[in-house]
Amino acid sequence: MLKIITNKSCYQFSPELATDTVSYNLPLTLFGKQWYIMDDYWMKHIHLKITDRCNAACPFCIEQDSNIRENKEQFLANVSRLLYEMDAQGHLSTVSITGGEPALCDYVGEVVDMVKRYCHLAELKAECIAEYRQMNPSTKIRIQCVLHEKGLQSIEEMLTFMEHYKGCADDFSFRRLITLDKPAEDDLLQQFKYYLFNYAELVEQVLKDYYVYETWRLNGILITLSHSNMGLLRRMEENEPDNLLREIVVHPDGHISGSWYRNRKVICPAGRKSTKT
Predict the structure, then answer these.
(1) Is the predicted pLDDT of residue 230 greater than 80, yes or no?
(2) 191 is a domain residue
(3) Domain count within the chain
(4) Residue 159 has pLDDT above 60, yes or no
(5) Is residue 274 part of a domain?
(6) Stretch 178-187: mean pLDDT
(7) Selected residue with higher pLDDT from 84 and 93
């Protein structure tokens, strides 16, 4: 299911997401096997999960129990081939380097250099934001917030937060914790939706597969809201062909999956080291 809503009268407060009926008919060959994706920007993104290690203990983090041993040689070899094959077929749009805390990985610099051969990478320091934005006017700076019990507690706090930081951000993003089930109807994100519906301009609401993504404009500030239902994603993947890809995720040991569920839609298992072709 893919639905884009720009008319406020059609806005859905609690959309019922369902199995995607769109045909994934764009072929993509990775590691000698044919896969299919949609001809869509979001489907051409690679997540490089470089490490599970982290020096923080954020209460909302879903990765705290992850513990996949890093394998530098396998990771770099497989990522090199993946980037090469995606780029050669014209299907590489964006790459994110994530974790854990990427800076704790000893070879993060090598990963960055590898990505820079295929994608433009902006190296940005907080004290240089104003100068960088002047030199690169197309750069968009987003402050991303996860709503949870130890964070912002009310709409008033959210508005105060945005007012304080609006001078250095183009966009504020708020999302729920990732859940396996449908969230409560009275949670803070849902309350904020009603507030924005009454006081803000709707830019668009996107209903896609297992997530809702929407953009609002309030007093000149862009606000995005998002929520993913991982339980729905699991059920969808259980009932569709294994050769359809919604995500491409590389894990710390070099294992590559077409799903956030590591052992689903396996593109390249951790036991296989690959070289660029």
Answers:
(1) no
(2) yes
(3) 1
(4) yes
(5) no
(6) 62
(7) 84
**Whole-structure pTM value:** 0.70
Q: Quote the CA–CA distance of 256 and 252 in Å, as a whole number.
A: 9
Distance from C-alpha of 223 to C-alpha of 189, rounded to nearest angstrom: 12
Is residue 276 one of the residues assigned to a domain?
no
List pLDDT tens digits, range 1-20: 578 889 999 998 877 766 55
Question: What domain range is 97 assigned to?
Answer: 2-268
C-alpha pair distances (Å), 95 with each of 45, 78, 217, 269, 270: 6, 14, 27, 20, 20
